[in-house]
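Why do we bother with a discrete structure alphabet at all? Because it lets us treat a fold like text: something you can write down, compare, and reason about line by line. To make this less abstract, here is a complete entry for Putative membrane protein YccC. Read it the way you would read a sentence in a foreign language you are learning: slowly, and without expecting to understand everything at once.
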Amino acid sequence: MPSPFRSAADRLADAAPGWLVETVRPAPAKPAWWPMVRMALAVTVPLLVALVAGNLTLGLLPSMGAMGPGLANRGGPYRERVARIGLVGLGGAAGYAIGAMVRGHGWWTVPVIVVVSVVSALISTIGAKGSLAGLQLVVMAVISTGIPLPGGPLLGAAQFLLGVAWVTVLGVADWPLRSRNPEESATVTVYRSLDRLIDDRDADALAAFDTALESGYDAVFGARSASAGQDPGQTRLIALLNQASLIRNALISLGQEGRDPPEGTAAAVEEITAALDEGRAPHPPPRLPGESPALRALNSAVDGAVELASGGDVETEQLPYRPVGYGERFRNAWAKMWYGHFTRKYAVRLALCMGVATAISEFGLFERSYWMVLTVALVLKPDFGSVFARALQRALGTFAGTFVGVAVLLVVPYGPLILVPIAVFAALIPYGLQRNWGLMSTFQAPLVLLLVDLLTRGGPRLAEVRLVDTVAGCVIVLLLGYLPWPGSWHAPVRGPFADAVSATARYLRGAFDPGNPDRPVYRRKAYEAMSDLRVVFQRAVTEPPTVSRRITTWMPAMTALEKVADTTAATVARAEHGAPPPPPEAVRALADSLEEIAEAIRRRRVPAEPEPAAEGTPERLDDAIRALRDIISGHHTC
């Protein structure tokens, strides 16, 4: 029976977004009110305090210090929020101090901005927090070289940090209002999405569950990484997430057996969800009828979730993580910073474009050339999505936003009333950021326009200057940072796809060995790699048609790879509950076939023909891997 689940790659092929609608991250059904209010308060309260003190411009730096780190607050565990806001804030303060020191020194500004750009590129490779901190470092360095704010470099950096402190307070202000911490809420969300998966069993339900599970792991792992020593509560949450994944795999295994979930499955999972939500022990689940391996796997997974929710012991060897010491973290970060091909390429492109933009600004051809340099830094950030799409969206969003800004400058007089539109635009930025880069730029452009007008009193003419500088920055990025680079014209799928195949091979190789303590780790890594691959697909289809058309040819391969992983998970579930496990030599042969496919993808060649299936090889798994091999054979020249 065909699987009732349709792959994410198929859904992406049906509704691949164009460059005008590229999403920065998955958009919610409706914007959450608190992040919008929080951003409005972060930006306007420092200005309001300065207004009461008699000098509105004194609030500009604290307002800037709250804006960038405020956008870095994306929810999650409170310790993680504080760490992310603090790191981004420190990057911005350092950037401001460096830029203020070289302001007015003419051509010396060019090499300083180039060096700061290289440092920013290196920091950005460490991870999400490093990426945001690196961006804030270069953004504030550019702003402080172009805007003569009052006070010296260190005083300005201190004012900036006041804004960081304020947005940190706002970031944890909702803690007393929450009945549970974010890690617990994320776990409840996973089980709610599991309810839907049991009822619907369609592509959207599977996608919603996988997204919720990934977010749940990220939330709990983020909290755990900040903990000193073992935290039993967080360990239990990880075990509950792992158990939800086992229920998912059992449902897929039922589909392979041609069965629907028995009556009572949905009620049992709903009871677990309600118990987690209400902080109580769940009622014992009914015994689900049936004695097939998949049904036994489903019973076992549901029973395990009930036991964990009731306070039962956690089998830590089944948790999908291994402790990583600070020394290993530092070595991994150092390796990413200095030895990655991506790092070198991004650093060179960013340094080239920033150097050219800064040099042009020294000729005085643009009235406020720092806007041009800022545009280069923001658009050329490769981990934020398609450079091509962001350049066009930035130009169009700024064009629309400047008209709105001009209207506000013409209608609203200078003084306290100007804080009202500032608050409105600040509140809309988180919503725009959730949708796409162009909409975010539409809300950001008038906000920046109003803030600059507070200092310079440039009036509506600032809109024209902003638009010209932004378009100039986009042109520099496209001409120097995008078009001349061969990698811009190739589908950026090959490397991540090969990595995902290798991760799936490692998962398969250890999946049927009960004594292997890393089995849960390999399973999580395989699905993480495919999640990362889907992000690559989503970003790549926003490139020009020359590139995006090549991307679409890889989507059948993505579907086939997802089927290999899901078939592996379902086969493991059945083998652990009565079905005969495949012989070790058959498992090794299948894993070797996947490794051969991964190597062929990297080397742009046709995968070698696999050996005939050994006796006892799971037919569905063998068919899935052979189907993947056949599809990849047509991509060795892409």
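What the structure line is telling us, in plain words: The chain is about 70% helix and 0% strand. Confidence is low (pLDDT under 50) at residues 1-31, 225-230.
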